[in-house]
From TrEMBL:
Database matches in CDD domains: MFS_MMR_MDR_like
Upper classification of the organism: Bacteria, Bacillati, Actinomycetota, Actinomycetes, Micromonosporales
Domain of life of the source: Bacteria
Native source organism of the sequence: Paractinoplanes lichenicola
Residue ranges of every copy of the Major facilitator superfamily (MFS) profile domain listed in the record: 7-446
TM region positions: 43-60, 72-89, 95-119, 131-154, 160-182, 194-214, 220-240, 261-283, 289-311, 323-345, 420-439
Keywords, sorted A to Z: Membrane, Transmembrane, Transmembrane helix
Protein topology in the membrane: Multi-pass membrane protein
Name under which the protein is recorded: MFS transporter
UniProt subcellular location: Cell membrane
Coiled-coil segments: none
Amino acid sequence: MHRRAITLALCLAAAFTTLLDQSSLNTAVPALRASLGAGESEVQWIIAGYSLTFGLALVPSGRLGDAYGRKWLFVLGIALFSTAAIVAGTAQEAWVVAVARLVQGVGAGTVNPQVLGIIQELFDGPGRTKALGAYAIVGGVAGVIGPLVGGLLIDTYGWRSVLLLNVPFGLVTVPLAIKWFPRRKPREHRHASLDLPGLALLGGATLCLLLPFTGADQRAWIAGVPLLVAALIAWERRYARRGGTPILLPALLRERGYRTGTLIATFQFGASLSVSLAITLYLQEKLGWPALHAGLTVLPGALGFALLSAIGWRVVGRHGRRGILWALVGSLGAVTSTIGVLHWVPGRWLGLGLGLTQLASGAASGLIISPNQALTLLHAPPGAAGLAAAFLQLAQRISATVGTAAVAGVVLGGSGPGPITGGLAICAGMLAAAVAVAWRDLARESLTGSLNIYTR
């Protein structure tokens, strides 16, 4: 029990490290851009490149963790993340920061499937939901202090201190993980096949899908997506017939609860990150607000997320997917209200108005992310906890890459209130899609007469 508690604490510390980096970076982007002379394309790479490589690393590292154990992958990921943070924080050119962020994404994408996989393996039932709730609370706390600490550090020490902020956490976490994590690989996974061709095809398809949203040529890359997806499906079928274990596990893909939860996560996660980014960029780049002032404006959203994440697991037990649907509707309402505030609230009251809409948006997200994760991962087949968590996070990272790159490009690409309205409209559209998915699934459940298909 003692070792299990320490292992969970280390997993939460790792999640805090990677999520704090994400929440604090937004406040540093304008100062970094001015200091290094970064262009719009370089800014998009710095912001969205992290999510790009994060997503690419998820499935291979999840599969490797299921097959060979999670300890050394966890250690490798944290070490890579921290080393790249040092490079980014000492860079003299914007492209170096962008490359370092890509490497940091690989490190974070290696760590996070191990974190969720370990939670899946250590806990079950209500204990698992509470552990996932703790994971969400850690994310909320990182979100709360990220903009505030980022703003304080920028005003006091400059933008480099924000990129170096997470290095001490990595230096502490790595030796503790080496000492306390389980040393032997799980016996039931020793003979699992890695399906390297399937991993390569999936990674190639993901790369082709995401690169156009980071400034690359759209036609050339998008054209490769259907070809690689078709090749992946053909290979997976052949691989399964030969007795291998494909990465596209049929048992996982057949689960409607898993498919529904993954789609909801896809649309909602990218939207929630993009809303905060859009507001921060607009306040600093267009209105000239100091970094700390902009960070304080979005702080209520992170605070609302942290507080509501603490009770999110109760929503699962009481309302199931229906509670998530209503929270999605609330999140959509908060984004549309933000657009109204930007257009109609006088300048001296703008910070207060945005703070209130951010509070509502963050509270709604707190009732969505952890409950949806818990409901979705209930459907993971035995021995595939890491892979199921990896696919779920891959969907989130695809959404984050597309959303943040598109929104950053729109907000930075013009003057006046039009660009921020366009950026927030993208977020509202993503949330509307999540609402449609959740509503359709509940309608199908009602038609089949099932009272609660998502709890076991």
